[in-house]
Structure to design on (246 residues):
């Protein structure tokens, strides 16, 4: 990379399938909208809107961007690695960080010699003051929503999700969709559909037939899986019977 620090913002119109990758540069992932799933080893973190997650250089990870996710990516050269976190985790301790990232996402002039470059230099100094917040994979959500997402990921049905929500928060199940959308920019059913699609693709990758994988993921059958492919993975819709998750 030609400069000591760079910034890129990307929006996913559709579900972006996970790809394991290793970046030689330390980087910060910031969710402006939507949500994403980040896998490190056997752990999978949910990144909700507003989350900032730090990845050290040479960290092997897999990132799944759900439909509508907008992610800012800050990459830091080895030239400025001194003082930066050496482990992965959520960043905390820098009140200026969200405002800087929001401002960078609105820049149209990316000239390093101009205002954009000056913001990046301030961001570099800000990152060196941050600390990591080690927490559970779903702890970036409030406990009520975390319980619902955990139920979805465990294969729970809609009634189980509503029960978990009511038990944890004491709120009416009717308030769940609005709270869910505020945090993740998706309703519970949309989030669950994409999760089930990912689990189906993973089952196919492990050797199950499409029908078997769809059923194991909690879908009603092959037709339901094909509808989700058409909706969330249009470029894979005509790729044949073996859609790949790699």
């Amino acid at each position: 990379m030609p400069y000591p620090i760079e910034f890129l913002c990307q929006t996913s119109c559709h579900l972006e399938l996970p790809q394991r990758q290793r970046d030689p540069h330390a980087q910060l992932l910031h969710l402006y909208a939507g949500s994403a799933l980040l896998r490190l080893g056997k752990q999978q973190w949910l990144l909700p809107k507003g989350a900032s997650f730090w990845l050290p250089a040479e960290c092997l990870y897999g990132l799944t961007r759900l439909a509508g996710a907008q992610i800012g990516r800050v990459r830091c050269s080895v030239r400025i690695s001194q003082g930066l976190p050496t482990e992965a985790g959520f960043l905390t301790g820098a009140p200026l960080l969200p405002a800087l990232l929001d401002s960078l996402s609105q820049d149209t002039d990316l000239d390093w010699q101009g205002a954009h470059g000056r913001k990046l230099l301030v961001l570099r100094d800000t990152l060196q003051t941050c600390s990591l917040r080690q927490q559970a994979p779903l702890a970036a959500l409030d406990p009520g929503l975390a319980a619902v997402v955990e139920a979805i990921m465990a294969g729970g049905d809609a009634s189980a999700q509503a029960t978990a929500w009511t038990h944890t928060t004491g709120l009416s199940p009717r308030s769940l969709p609005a709270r869910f959308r505020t945090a993740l920019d998706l309703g519970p059913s949309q989030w669950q559909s994409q999760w089930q699609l990912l689990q189906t693709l993973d089952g196919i990758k492990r050797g199950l037939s499409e029908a078997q994988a769809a059923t194991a993921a909690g879908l009603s059958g092959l037709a339901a899986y094909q509808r989700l492919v058409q909706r969330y993975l249009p470029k894979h819709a005509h790729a044949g019977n073996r859609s790949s998750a790699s």
Summary: Residues 143-236 form a domain with the Arc Repressor Mutant, subunit A fold (CATH 1.10.10). Confidence is low (pLDDT under 50) at residues 238-246.
